[in-house]
Amino acid sequence: MWAAARSVRRMDAPQDALPAPRRDRARLPEGYGLPAGDAGLLDWSDVEARLVAAKHYWISTVRPDGRPHSIPRWGVWVDGRWW
C-alpha cells in the first residue's frame, strides 16, 4: 500500500524536486497474515503504470467520527500528477 497521505506534493513544485513516494503496509490487527518487510509490495513504477491506464479513480478519506468515505472522480494521471 502506498502512503499517499504522507507524501503530499505541491502542485507548483518542479517535477525533479518531488520526493519519491514511500512504500508502507496497511496497519491491520494480528492474524491477517501480512508478510513482514517489503515482500509483495509494488514498486512505484508499477503503481504509476496503473494510474496512467486507469479510467476511473476513487478518492477515499475518513470522516471525523472514523467512518470511511469514498467517492468516484474523473481524472487523468499525467507527468506524475492526478488532474
What does this molecule look like?
- By secondary structure, this protein is α+β, with helices and mostly antiparallel strands.
- The protein has one domain (4-82).
- Helix content is 12%, strand content 19%.
- The protein contains one helix and four strands.
- The chain has one helix at residues 44-53; strands spanning 57-62, 68-73, 77-78, 81-82.
- The strands form two sheets. A two-stranded antiparallel ribbon has the order 1-2. Strands 3-4 form a two-stranded antiparallel ribbon.
- The radius of gyration is 15 Å and the shape is extended.
- The protein starts with 43 loop residues before the first helix and ends with a strand.
Describe this protein with a few key phrases.
single chain; 83 residues; alpha+beta; two-stranded antiparallel ribbon; two-stranded antiparallel sheet; 4 strands; 12% helix; extended; disordered N terminus
